[in-house]
Amino acid sequence: MHLYRGDVMLKIVLLGAPGSGKGTQSLKLVAEYGVPQVSTGDLLRHAVAEQTELGLKAKAAMDAGELVSDDIVVGMIRERLDQPDAENGFILDGFPRSQAQAAALDVLLSRLDRPLQRVVHLEVDNEEIVQRLMSRGRADDNEETIRNRLAVFQEQTEPLVQYYKDQGLLVAVKGVGDVDEIFARIKAALDAA
Ligand code: AP5
User: Fold this and answer.
1) What angle (nearest 5°) sits at the alpha carbon of residue 166, between those of residues 181 and 87?
2) Does ligand 1 have an atom closer than 6 angstroms to the CB of 55?
3) Does residue 4 form part of some domain?
């Protein structure tokens, strides 16, 4: 995406079900565009590992595959986007995940004068996701929690597809197949934007 490389910003959201490849593709985008990945899942896991007050509050929800409260994650994002490395852009991975989070992000980015350029929706069907996550083995990758995460995604996060369509920001990318091919599809979608 020639437009956004080098001195120009990349400000995007990667939206997709658990296991759709948001983290995998974020790393490739970071290498290509030189802006940080901002993953609420990683920030929360770090807080849990450090046993901070926030981590202790978040742990039960994460273990059950439920969403951590909007207050906690919005606060984390606000702090993270205030750091200097996010001034020239960011890849939001796993945030926003609810209507309230999307509305809070709009307010925050408008205050920072850093509006979103695109929301990339990675599309992968549920059975492929269950297979992927069962073979990964993270703490929340047991079948019961995976299925609950998928249900929570469908109920609370999927409505954001329409929300961002209405804002003219959404691009849909098929998230199945070779990782590099998917990355090429994402780049093509961003270039075409
Ligand atoms: P989070 O860490 O965001 O987890 P998630 O959304 O469930 O996503 P994953 O990390 O499981 O998947 P991914 O889409 O990043 O895919 P990945 O690249 O890793 O959130 C964890 C928890 O934190 C939530 O359940 C919630 O409790 C809490 N939380 C986080 N954000 C929150 C928020 N905003 N609000 C409230 N609560 C929040 O790939 C998955 C696997 O598939 C890997 O093994 C990978 O190697 C493999 N893979 C990737 N691409 C391919 C491919 N093309 N083909 C085959 N395998 C592939």
Assistant:
1) 65
2) no
3) no
Per-residue pLDDT of the chain (193 residues; tens, 9 = 90+): 444 555 558 999 999 999 999 999 999 999 999 999 999 999 999 999 999 999 999 999 999 999 999 999 999 999 999 999 999 899 999 999 999 999 999 999 999 999 999 999 999 999 999 999 999 999 999 999 999 999 999 999 999 999 999 999 999 999 999 999 999 999 999 988 6
Active site residues: 22, 97, 136, 138, 149
* Ligand 1 pocket residue status of 20, Cβ below 6 Å: yes
What range does the domain containing 148 cover? 10-188
- 135 exposed, middle or buried (CB, 10 Å; 0-12, 13-18, 19+)? exposed
Whether pTM exceeds 0.90: yes
In the numeric block, which tokens belong to residue 109? 């980015």
Indicate which CATH number applies to the domain containing 95. Answer: 3.40.50.300
Q: Which atom of ligand 1 is nearest to the CA of 16?
A: 14
132 lines ligand 1 (CB under 6 A): yes
Q: How many domains does one find in the chain?
A: 1
Distance separating the N- and C-terminal Cα atoms of the chain: 9
